[in-house]
Amino acid sequence: MSAPVVLQVAASPVSPALVLRPWRMEDVAPLVEVSRDPTLRQWVSSVVDNDAEGTRWVQAQQQGWAAGDRFGFAVLEAQPGSIREQLVGNVVLKEVTSGKPAAEVGYWTAAHARGRGVASRALEALTSWAFDTFEADGLERLELLHQVDNLASCRVAQKSRYDFDTILPAAPPSFPRDGHLHIRRTST
Ligand SMILES: CC(C)(COP(=O)(O)OP(=O)(O)OC[C@H]1O[C@@H](n2cnc3c(N)ncnc32)[C@H](O)[C@@H]1OP(=O)(O)O)[C@@H](O)C(=O)NCCC(=O)NCCS
Fold first, then answer.
1. Keywords assigned by UniProt (predicted)?
2. What is the full DSSP assignment across 52-101?
């Protein structure tokens, strides 16, 4: 993929338009700030504590794009009265392999932007892009995993038409509790 992929999401009645684009080094400072949130730290395994870790994390996203197996997007929101956009979230398509029918999605939203459809709208854009881009290469379904007690994430999955599939047994340390597997297929 040559030019950076940029996905646009229209404004909703309660939320400005979103722009999804590959992570950049300029995102490190806001990423570190957003990562202080305890709820994010509770549910996300790879959080960053400082600029050095943030830089490594962004580099890992960039390596994923270069390798073609992991596609992480920063989710940005227009700010009224400002030309600068604000970091409000992350969506990622991962475990992509040519010819493999399944890949996985993940997401988080900055604490200050939750509850107004950022994750579900960004996930919809990611899902459409993923199928448009990789269906010809064998992609048939996207998998979404969350711990059973992550009710907000379960709701995002339901709203985004990722149907509940199975309970996954706990797999510490990354998944200390049982999980849900939700699946969305190309045809839905
Ligand atoms: C899960 C998360 C990404 C949702 O982000 P968001 O931008 O607020 O998501 P949306 O606004 O699209 O939807 C959230 C939905 O969950 C619901 N919700 C929020 N907290 C909830 C809770 N404790 N119990 C049940 N539902 C809850 C909201 O009401 C909303 O549903 P609605 O639109 O029907 O009212 C966000 O809470 C987050 O970043 N959590 C920490 C990281 C994380 O858990 N990532 C997912 C790992 S699998």
1. Transferase
2. HHHHHHHHHHHHHHHHTS-EEEEEEEE-TT-SSEEEEEEEEEE---TT-S
Q: pLDDT tens digit string along 45-98?
A: 889 999 999 999 999 999 999 999 999 999 999 887 777 899 999 999 999 999
Rounded distance from Cα 156 to ligand 1 centre (Å): 6
Please give the number of the atom of ligand 1 that sits closest to the Cα of 120: 12
As a whole-number percent, the residues of the chain with pLDDT over 90 amount to 88
Nearest CA to ligand 1 atom 16: 152
* Residue numbers of the domain that contains 77: 7-185
Domain at 61, CATH number: 3.40.630.30
Residue 59 falls in which region: left (phi positive, over 0), alpha (psi -120 to 50) or beta:
alpha
What residues line ligand 1, using a CB cutoff of 6 Å?
39-40, 43-44, 107-109, 114-120, 146, 150-153, 155-156
pTM of the full structure: 0.96
CA of 135 relative to ligand 1 center, distance in Å: 28
Instruction: Tell me if 2 is assigned to some domain.
Output: no
Q: How many domains does the chain have?
A: 1
Domain assignment present for residue 107? The answer is yes
Atom of ligand 1 nearest to the CA of 118: 7
Residue 164 lies in a domain: yes
- Give, using CA atoms, the residue closest to atom 17 of ligand 1: 152
Q: Which ligand 1 atom is the nearest neighbour of the CA of 156?
A: 13
